[in-house]
Design a protein that fits this description.
This protein is of the alpha/beta class and about 220 residues long. An eight-stranded mixed β-sheet has the order 1-2-4-3-5-6-7-8, with helices on both faces. The protein is globular, with a radius of gyration of 16 Å.
């Protein structure tokens, strides 16, 4: 797991920094209804962030992260992946996400991200939209760069950049030529899953496609 269930983002709260935060239900471009968490900034910076969680979906950690971003002037929305197979609602730490991840599809994830980006633009007025994802969401964040959404940038934390996935998403390194915005890719130096060769392959693909990027 990316973190323990009781972990929270390492960002200090700012009282009064967010205008409001609430649970909402969005409808994807394919008609799917799914859970999301939206927070608007009291003093908007013009930036907006779509937060793409790890395999557990819209965990409490990501709701807190959305709120912390808004407190720092970045309107944000976090989305859940499992509306099609698990419905809408807080499932708690015992949720069996492992059986639902393989039931997600590239087309479905793309439809949901597109809806989230559009909703964030219309509700916060953000002129610069970014995506930021973790693990499964990190890979998805890289891929959103080729969705034609007019993103200002994408940020992926330890998202698999090469190889197959459990839900049929393409390898980001293989579709880097579709990317439209700068990429910030953050990996763990001691990660035994995403090794140095995988990171190097992604960085090479970004360079070959002339994508502005930074790999950490």
């Amino acid at each position: 797991m990316c973190f323990d269930h009781d972990s929270r983002p390492p960002i200090a709260p700012i009282t009064g920094g967010s205008l409001d935060a609430r649970e909402i239900v969005l409808e994807g471009t394919d008609g799917n209804r799914f859970a999301a968490y939206l927070a608007r900034a009291a003093e908007p910076s013009g930036a907006g962030m779509v937060v793409l969680p790890d395999v557990r979906g819209l965990h409490a950690y990501y709701r807190d992260l959305v709120l912390r971003l808004a407190e720092h002037g970045v309107g944000a929305i976090g989305i859940d992946y499992f509306g099609r197979t698990a419905g809408i609602g807080d499932r708690g730490p015992g949720f069996d996400w492992a059986q639902h991840v393989p039931q997600t599809t590239y087309e479905g994830l793309r439809a949901d991200v597109t809806a989230a980006v559009e909703h964030l633009r219309t509700t916060t007025g953000a002129s610069r939209i970014f995506t930021m994802g973790f693990c499964m969401g990190g890979r998805l964040a890289f891929l959103t760069n080729g969705f034609g959404l007019g993103l200002a940038g994408v940020i992926g934390f330890y998202g698999w950049p090469v190889g197959p996935s459990r839900n049929g998403t393409p390898a980001p390194a293989e579709v880097a030529d579709t990317f439209e915005a700068p990429v910030l890719a953050i990996f763990g130096g001691a990660d035994e899953g995403i090794d140095a060769d995988a990171v190097a392959a992604f960085e090479h693909a970004l360079g070959a496609a002339s994508v502005e990027h930074r790999v950490v």
